[in-house]
């Protein structure tokens, strides 16, 4: 069993003595990083000052700035260089300063201006992290999710490629390491301390905090806090363990099962594998078997790929992907999204953030994008949801009626899946059937002439 606070205390002390470089604290979302740092500072007899870096659009929509906030959410500084000086001065006072990298770099819309802002922000973050690592006074730490570190260091062009194939290459390039038996996408930055609560650490925390809970309640606490999918399946959210112990009366087996089933509808574990398989076309037999085991998500990722190839926007394609998970059974699409919205509201913050995080990793999106998509989808009123579905149906109909025959053929090949996802109805598909048959006829005539 690992004691993360003790590990960090030792690293911070070695850093103070000049034996250690920058202390990087990583892990999955809500894995207990800040709590571990707080414990480490306490063991050193020092106060912890946690500063959160946030990416904030500048008023008027022209550019993005990096803002530092304290643990009360109060804005400390709005300039990276002044932020570095502020941090150095605080560390001279003997406190342990930890800077948390932004959890979200999500900005609505995929305009050229937004892409430019994102690139500039990533470069600013890179310089900021380098500045902390080379000139700060020990002890200090940099905290962030594994993927955030990878994104900041990444050199890919981003989603600004003009052609669909360029966008597709950008999305799938980081997925190439997934083609292999272990399906490993991310590894912690070199020399970092990864805070990840496995079963041993979770059970130890439970025993430390629980006083009068019976064994059945303890089992429910652990079940309510377990990560059920993604790269950290089988690990735990320590915050949910603490919350379950504090409010055991709120833990109901039926509710836990309901939310587990909802997560299964939206989990993205297989999407990246299916996408990489489809694009590179050389997945190992282990990957192929894995995709077969999760045929639904494998098919969904194929739909996602085809929609992007056809030129449908990234956000619209993601909505289709979500709908495929939410509305697989026959029924009213809007009603099922509203039911999903009710469950989304019940999900703990830990699970919302982790769900979105998996989409960011699998689709190589800026951190916070997947969560932003999910919040946008489930944050709508019934009227807004109906309008969204109508607009999406309009986009799909446009593909089915495209003047480009290749586009029309590919779009029609996806119709059964789009019907299953509730994006279009059978009646709507039938209305376009005659045009599609005419297309096939014309193709046959052309083949005969050849």
**Major sheet attributes:** 7 strands, mixed
Based on CA atoms alone, the radius of gyration comes out at 24 Å
Number of domains: 3
Strand content: 5-15%
Q: What is the percent of helical residues?
A: 55-70%
The chain-level mean pLDDT equals 75
Structural class by SSE content = alpha/beta
Query: Can you count the beta strands?
Result: 7
Q: Unreliable runs, pLDDT <50, ≥5 residues?
A: 155-185, 270-301
Walk me through the topology.
Elements: H1 4-16, E1 23-26, H2 33-43, E2 48-57, E3 64-69, E4 75-77, H3 80-92, E5 96-100, H4 112-135, E6 140-143, H5 146-153, H6 164-172, E7 193-194, H7 199-209, H8 215-225, H9 238-246, H10 253-266, H11 271-280, H12 285-293, H13 295-310, H14 314-326, H15 333-346, H16 349-363, H17 369-378, H18 382-400, H19 405-413, H20 415-420, H21 426-431, H22 433-449
What does this 3D model show about the protein?
With 450 residues, this protein is of the alpha/beta class. It has three domains: 141 residues, Rossmann fold (3-Layer(aba) Sandwich); 56 residues; 184 residues, no CATH class. It is built from 22 helices and seven strands. The longest helix is centred in the first third of the chain and has 24 residues. It starts with a helix and ends with a helix.
Task: Give a quick set of tags describing it.
alpha/beta, 450 residues, 7 strands, Rossmann fold, 3 domains
In short:
Helices cover 59% and strands 8% of the residues.
């Amino acid at each position: 069993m690992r004691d993360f606070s003790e590990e960090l205390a030792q690293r911070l002390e070695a850093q103070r003595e000049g034996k250690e470089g920058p202390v990087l604290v990583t892990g999955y979302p809500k894995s207990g990083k800040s709590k571990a740092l707080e414990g480490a500072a306490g063991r050193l007899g020092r106060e912890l000052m946690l500063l959160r870096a946030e990416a904030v659009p500048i008023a008027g929509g022209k550019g993005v700035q990096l803002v530092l906030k304290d643990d009360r959410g109060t804005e400390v500084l709005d300039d990276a260089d002044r932020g570095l000086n502020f941090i150095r001065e605080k560390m001279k006072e003997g406190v342990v300063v930890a800077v948390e990298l932004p959890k979200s770099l999500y900005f609505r819309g995929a305009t050229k201006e937004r892409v430019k802002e994102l690139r500039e922000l990533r470069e600013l973050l890179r310089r900021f992290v380098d500045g902390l690592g080379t000139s700060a006074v020990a002890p200090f730490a940099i905290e962030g999710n594994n993927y955030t570190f990878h994104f900041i260091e990444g050199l890919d062009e981003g989603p600004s490629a003009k052609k669909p194939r360029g966008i597709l290459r950008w999305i799938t390039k980081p997925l190439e390491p997934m083609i292999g038996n272990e399906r490993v996408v991310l590894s912690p930055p070199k020399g970092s301390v990864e805070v990840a609560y496995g079963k041993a650490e979770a059970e130890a925390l439970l025993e430390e905090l629980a006083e009068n809970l019976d064994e059945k309640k303890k089992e429910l606490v652990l079940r309510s806090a377990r990560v059920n999918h993604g790269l950290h399946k089988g690990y735990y959210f320590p915050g949910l363990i603490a919350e379950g112990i504090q409010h055991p009366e709120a833990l109901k087996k039926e509710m836990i099962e309901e939310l587990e089933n909802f997560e299964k509808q939206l989990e993205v574990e297989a999407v990246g594998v299916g996408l990489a398989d489809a694009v590179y076309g050389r997945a190992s037999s282990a990957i192929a078997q894995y995709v077969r085991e999760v045929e639904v998500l494998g098919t969904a990722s194929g739909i996602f790929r085809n929609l992007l190839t056809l030129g449908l926007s990234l956000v619209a394609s993601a909505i289709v992907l979500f709908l495929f998970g939410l509305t697989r059974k026959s029924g009213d699409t809007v009603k099922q999204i509203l039911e999903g919205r009710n469950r989304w509201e019940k999900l703990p913050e830990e699970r919302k953030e982790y769900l979105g995080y998996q989409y960011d990793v699998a689709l190589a999106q800026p951190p916070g994008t997947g969560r932003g998509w999910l919040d946008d989808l489930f944050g709508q009123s019934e009227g807004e949801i109906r309008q969204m579905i109508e607009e999406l149906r309009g986009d799909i109909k446009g593909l089915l009626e495209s003047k480009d025959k290749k586009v029309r053929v590919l779009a029609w090949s996806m119709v059964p899946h789009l019907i299953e996802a509730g994006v279009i109805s059978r009646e709507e598909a039938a209305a376009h059937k005659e045009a599609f048959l005419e297309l096939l006829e014309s193709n046959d005539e052309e083949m005969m002439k050849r």
